[in-house]
Amino acid sequence: MNARTTPLPEQPPATGPTAPVDLLGVGVGPFNLSLAALADGVPGLTAAFYEQRPSFEWHPGLLIDGATLQVPFLADLVTLADPASRWTFLNWLKTRERLFPFYFAERFHVHRAEYDAYCRWVAESLPTTHFGQQVDAVRWDPERGHFEVDHTQLDAHGEAEALARTCARNLVLGVGTAPHVPEPLRLLAETPTVPVVHSAHYMQQRDRLLGADHITVVGSGQSGAEVFLDLLRARPVGRERLTWLARTPAFAPMEYSKLGLEHFTPDYTRYFHGLAEPVRDRLVPQQWQLHKGIDHDTLTAIHDELYRRTLDGGWPDAALTPGVTVRTAGRIGTHGIELHLEHGEQGTRTRLMTDAVVLATGYRERPLDQLLEPLDPYIRRDAAGRPRVGPQHRVVLDRSVTGRVYVQNAERHSHGVGAPDLGLAAWRSAVILNDLTAVLTGAEHYPLPARTAFTTFGLDGAAASDVPTRTAALRRG
Questions:
Q1: Quick one: 76 exposed, middle or buried, by C-beta within 10 A (0-12, 13-18, 19+)?
Q2: Strand stretches in 43-121, DSSP E
Q3: Buried b (16+ CB within 10 A) or exposed e, 284-320
Q4: Is 163 left (phi over 0), alpha (psi -120 to 50) or beta?
Q5: What is the DSSP letter of 275?
Q6: How many CB atoms lie within 10 A of CB 74?
Q7: Which candidate in 34, 374, 393, 397 could, as Cys together with 401 as Cys, close a disulfide (CB 3.0–4.6 Å)?
Q8: Could you tell me if 21 and 46 are in contact, meaning their C-beta atoms sit under 8 angstroms apart?
């Protein structure tokens, strides 16, 4: 959700609710939707969540037929914090009379389109989620001891209808990420007539792309693999005319071993947060295979499809080349695109002529500086100029600010590779709500496990030292 800094000049902001809400969320993606769903179960807590889009949508450009989540269905919005919640994925299936079909399907990883439909059901059912509301500015009012949030109500076409102001004691920012376009390809991607599109818009541009004679996919992650597989299946045998390029040294599988997955537990998140800042900054890029690899099933499906095309002899007209960087790019003639490539290990360079490019080049955290500019004097920053974020996902503010500002999926630098992972959504939401309810009511609302991994990260042994005592207490209980 992008912030807009210029309000409508012809009318002053209208006054919102007279009493501040306890929690106001900016953005309604899966993470703030998880928080809204769990907050719905906290008695007496007042909340509102604003999103500028007209309705909930989750990566619509990547809802490729047959594509599945990379996390189990238990990693829904609430289950791992409150399996008895009315907002579980299983309860959604029940409302659709689909529990028995799901049971017999024996699916642990559900379709992306199914997850998107489940989230839309939650978003449309909760009374605290408000769409078509664009947050423009956030300020701290020291005299009243709350935040002022100016927002614009948008119509179905995204045009401004009215201005409003809502006051809140605490904020949570879940503005999500934005598609990343590498600098060498940015100018081409910004030209509407040139078929250079980010994978975030793949489904909207799929027919246009399939009309191209030769297509190049750039990016070695899950999105790149899914796009390449979909294009491959749609092209005639022997006339595939596809190239898949990646910077990584291989089209590598995602780390999906049981102990490897423990990097996505609260235990590892706490360990990572306790490391020195230079160590954290060094670790994140080294752990790319934890979250930027390709799942085994997709790699198998690609190989199977390529192999099937060799049954009558010959090889498919498809090139899969890792270890390559796009140095520069430009137009050739009316329709051609020229990519200047460099192979890192060989130290060689070449040119590739293509007719369309899909950029599966990932996403970047949306910067919060513009939205939080009025709060800048209060924000404490690390050595790299990023907001410092505490263990409870709370931005460290000056002590004069009694309100709290939480962030979701904007704290990879402080909390590690689990920050954008759907599997930690419910746990993080519960941590934030517990931090709030401890202040509001003196008690944490959601009991959370003290230990979540078999691995003991670090040498202090704190994560495991009291496990026998806790286990005995649970048995006695």
A1: buried
A2: 47-51
A3: beeebbbbbbbbeebbebbeebbeebeeeeeebbbeb
A4: beta
A5: S
A6: 14
A7: 397
A8: yes
d(CA 89, CA 121): 10
Output the furthest CA–CA distance in the chain (Å, rounded): 78
Residue at 135: amino acid letter: V
Both tokens assigned to 67: 């594509």
Q: What is the pLDDT of residue 14?
A: 44
pTM: 0.91
List the structure tokens of 84: 């008895």
Residue 241 tokens, joined: 């005319």
Tokens of 415: 């909390």
- Rounded Cα–Cα distance for residues 146 and 67 (Å): 44
Taking the C-alpha atoms of residue 141 and residue 128, their distance in angstroms, rounded to an integer, is: 24
Cβ(243)–Cβ(354) under 8 Å? yes
Q: How many Å from the N-terminal Cα to the C-terminal Cα in the chain?
A: 46
Query: Any idea which residue has 């919102």 for tokens?
Result: 16
β strands within 174-233, DSSP E: 177-179, 196-198, 215-218
HEC per residue, 406-467: EECCCCHHHHCCCCCCHHHHHHHHHHHHHHHHHHHCCCCCCCCCCCCCCCCCCCCCHHHHCH
Length of the chain: 477
Mean pLDDT of 181-186: 96
Query: In terms of pLDDT, which residue wins out, 308 or 367?
Result: 308
Long-range contacts at 366-371 (CB < 8 A, ≥ 24 apart): 366/1, 366/2, 366/175, 366/176, 366/177, 366/178, 366/410, 368/173, 368/175, 368/407, 368/410, 370/3, 370/5, 371/3, 371/26, 371/135, 371/137, 371/138, 371/173, 371/175
Report CA-CA distances (Å) from 475 to 128, 185, 382, 468, 470.
39, 60, 44, 11, 9
Asked if 434 and 445 count as a contact pair (C-beta separation under 8 A), the reply is yes
- The structure tokens listed for 131 are 């769409």
Q: Give the residue from 174, 251, 262 showing the smallest Cα distance to 451.
A: 262
pLDDT of residue 461: 55
Q: Please report, rounded to a whole number, the percentage of residues in the chain having pLDDT higher than 90.
A: 85
Residue closest to 185 by CA, chosen among 327, 319, 352 = 327
Kindly report the backbone phi and psi dihedral angles of residue 40, in degrees, each rounded to the nearest multiple of 5, phi listed first: -60, -20
Of 186, 146, 120, 103, whose CA–CA distance to 364 is shortest? 186
